[in-house]
Amino acid sequence: MKQDLVHDFFEIGSKAIFLIPVILFIIMLFQILGPSKGTPQIHNSPILTPTIVPAQKTLNLQGPFICTSSSKTASWSAYIKDKKIVVISKQNNEVGNYLLDGDCGYMWKTPGLTGQKICGISSYVSIAENLLSTGIISPDSLLNSNLSSLGTSESIGEIKKLIKSCKKSSIPNKIVF
């Protein structure tokens, strides 16, 4: 019973999908080839104006990339290779280490023996890749919306500065992913 209803629905839908364009084409032909009404038709040609389409930004995590930035009180280094990211921040005799590897992110400070592990990140990374590649969202809006909870606008500015400093380069062997 249910299968018959579903079958009937799709049968009618497939016929409509075929017939609607055919009917629209016939109506268009009648309008174009139909009898003229004795009034001269004026055809305005469109004026083409050049527009600049911004280049789509993509999230390239294949690398290898090295990014470095510093301020008066801190310095940051980021290394990106094969969808793995290592970020090292140095501030006031404390080194913050951040690693994104696969589905998990790791954060720890040295000197110290403990840190945090956060998993389930890969789906968010793929969503960001898709949104950036289609142009739905820009890198700046992505950073502003997602990093505003991490700190002040000054720290967000430093992260943007770090991202803009990325250069394609081989990564030293001392950096372990």
Automatic annotation (TrEMBL):
Keywords, comma-separated and alphabetical: Membrane, Transmembrane, Transmembrane helix
Transmembrane segments: 12-33
Name of the protein described by the UniProt record: Uncharacterized protein
Organism: Candidatus Roizmanbacteria bacterium CG_4_10_14_0_8_um_filter_39_9
Top-level taxonomy: Bacteria, Candidatus Roizmaniibacteriota
